[in-house]
Every structure is written in structure tokens, then in C-alpha cells.
Amino acid sequence: MAALGALRSCWAPARLLTGSAHHSNRLVLCQQTSIKRHFSNNKILVELDEATGVAVMKMKNPPVNSLSLDFLTEFSITLEKLEMDRGCRGLILTSASPKIFSAGLDIMEMCGKSAEHYGEFWRAVQEMWLKLYGSNMVTIAAINGSSPAGGCLMALCCDYRIMADNPKYAIGLNETQLGIVAPFWFKDTMSNVVGNRVTEQALQLGQMFPAPEALKFGLVDQLVPEEKVQSTAASVMAQWLTVPDHARQITKSMMRKQTTDKLVNNREADIKNFVSFITRDSIQKSLQVYMERLRQRKQ
Ligand SMILES: CCCCC/C=C\C/C=C\CCC/C=C/C(=O)SCCNC(=O)CCNC(=O)[C@H](O)C(C)(C)COP(=O)(O)OP(=O)(O)OC[C@H]1O[C@@H](n2cnc3c(N)ncnc32)[C@H](O)[C@@H]1OP(=O)(O)O
């Protein structure tokens, strides 16, 4: 969480990038150029470049990067490690396999399981959101494929979104299409980016927007050719990192705290609400029908 007291002081890298550092600091930077640290596990590839202070996090949960309980747990642990690492100032979030950024929450985690499981799963979804939306790091989503529902939420949590310029890739909070409802904190995250009116319509209709449409109303910030998504993310990140960390972090926290506090103060009630919603027979039926439709589409 972006608690003000926990702000990290990362002045040296900021000064290096703005060019006001002492000569000996520059030497350190040169010497560090090729040092990369790895935080990978079997679901997420992470490489932290010590010279730039930027970590690239590639989701790798085949076939579609669905957000399973295991994946979400690994994700939050990894994010926590990076957050605590004084050498890490920026995070680029992307997919290890182009075409799909993330298929969103793993629907199988919400079907035919116990109430205890649903509670545990939802707590993990909350944790991912609190950590990513509340991150002190500069976060950039390099969206190299489709990004429905929970995948869109992850991208919306970031400070800036760069998407591959391919109309086949779509992004949006499509929950109503599955017969489920995006909770208030999904809604707030989108509303904070694109405004209330657009969010209201998009959420009711469960709209998925092809990349060019998403750009038009600011759901993503920039479209670039597919092969330039990563390099553009790196250069946008370099610009963001020229701003002194403490000032940017306080500003980010000021903009987002009201939204995160709403969940922090209501976590247990939100879990209870989710469990009672998802265990309804009608909702279970809707999810099964949706999965069946996905399978049939494939055939
Ligand atoms: C009363 C007030 C209540 C208030 C609210 C209270 C509580 C809130 C309640 C609920 C909130 C839940 C919020 C949910 C958020 C979500 O994220 S739901 C997930 C939504 N995701 C989707 O709709 C994506 C569906 N998938 C696709 O559209 C496509 O699969 C694709 C991602 C575009 C990829 O297409 P393609 O490359 O063609 O791959 P396939 O379709 O063939 O898929 C490959 C296999 O992957 C399986 N799969 C796809 N997506 C998911 C998924 N999200 N979860 C699990 N599995 C998935 C797909 O079935 C294929 O499996 P098989 O190979 O057939 O076994």
C-alpha cells in the first residue's frame, strides 16, 4: 500500500536520470549497466535491471494467463518483493505469450468449489488489486494481447497503458456478459481512468473494446506496433522516472487512497458479498453456460 510513511527514498537514481548527479555516481551507473536480478517463479518471469531500477514482470500462466488462486498468490508475493526492494523504482507488466495479456479471473476458481475456497480466492484477488493499485513504483502495462475483465483491471491499476495496435486484441470489463457483476472497486478503478458515464455504459453492456476503440476514450494511453510495445514501455518508464520518487508517490497516493480505503475498510464484507453471490445456483449456471460457449466457439 502506498502509505506515506512507507515511501522509499530513491534520490540517487532520480538524480542520475536528471543529469545532476556527481561524476562518481555516473560511474556506478555504467558499472551496473548489465546487472540483472531475477525474481522469477514458475508463473511469473521477473527481471530487475539494477542500472535503470526497472523490473519487467511477464505473466506466464498458459494457455491464457488466467488469474488462478496460485497465480494471484505468486503475483502478490513477487510484487511485495519488488516493492520492498530499494533498487526497484518501476514495473512493466506484460505477458510472456503475445496475443493474450490475461484472460482475467480463472473462471474455474469460481465454479463448483466450496464457500471457503471462494473466500480464499476472493481475498487473493483483493490482495492483488491492493498491491498493484497501491504500488509506490511507477507501473506501466505493456498490453500485448487481449485483456478481458480481471486482465483489464490489472492494466487499469497501472499508471500508464501501452497496447499493441491490433484490432483483434480487445480490452474491457465484460463481467455482465458472464452473468456476474464487477464489484465496486473494479468499477471505481475504471471510472478513475475514463470517467463515470463511459464506465457506466461499458460495465452495464460488458463491452470489450478493440484496441483502436479503447484508445479513443482513454482506456489505454497509447497504441504502438506489436513489436514496439516493450521498447515503448521502457522509454515511457524512463520519462516517468525522471520525476523525484517521493513527490510522485505522494501524488499517486493522494489520487488513489480514497479508492483503496473503501476496500481496505470493507474487505470482510466484500468477501462475504462475493461468496454469497457466487454460490447462488443461478450464477453458477451462468458461469457454466459461459464456459460451455467458450469451448464451443473453439470447436
Ligand atoms: C448483489 C451484488 C453483487 C455485487 C458483486 C459481488 C461480487 C462480485 C462477483 C463476481 C465478480 C467476478 C469478477 C470477475 C472477473 C473476471 O475476470 S471473470 C473472467 C472473464 N474472462 C473472460 O470472459 C475471458 C474468456 N476467455 C476468452 O475470451 C478467450 O479465451 C481469450 C482470452 C480471448 C483467448 O482466446 P483463445 O486464444 O481463442 O483461447 P480459448 O478461448 O480457446 O481458451 C483456451 C483455454 O482457456 C480457457 N479459458 C479462457 N479464459 C478463461 C478464464 N478466464 N478462466 C478459465 N479458463 C479460461 C478456455 O476455456 C480454453 O480451455 P480449453 O482448452 O477448452 O480447456
TrEMBL record:
Q: What is its EC number?
A: 5.3.3.8
The GO terms describing molecular function are: delta(3)-delta(2)-enoyl-CoA isomerase activity
Gene3D superfamilies tied to this protein: 2-enoyl-CoA Hydratase, Chain A, domain 1, 6.10.250.170
Quick one: a GO biological-process term for this protein? fatty acid beta-oxidation
Q: Which organism is it from?
A: Xenopus tropicalis (Western clawed frog)
Q: Which InterPro entries match?
A: ClpP/crotonase-like_dom_sf, Enoyl-CoA_hyd/isom_CS, Enoyl-CoA_hydra/iso
Q: What is this protein called?
A: Enoyl-CoA delta isomerase 1, mitochondrial
Subunit and interaction comment: Homotrimer.
Pfam families, alphabetized: ECH_1 (PF00378)
Q: Which PROSITE patterns does the annotation name?
A: ENOYL_COA_HYDRATASE (PS00166)
May I have one GO cellular component term?
mitochondrial matrix
What pathway does this protein act in?
Answer: Lipid metabolism; fatty acid beta-oxidation
Family designation:
Belongs to the enoyl-CoA hydratase/isomerase family.
Gene field: eci1
Classify the source by domain of life: Eukaryota
The enzyme class is isomerase
**Keywords, A to Z?**
Acetylation, Fatty acid metabolism, Isomerase, Lipid metabolism, Mitochondrion, Transit peptide
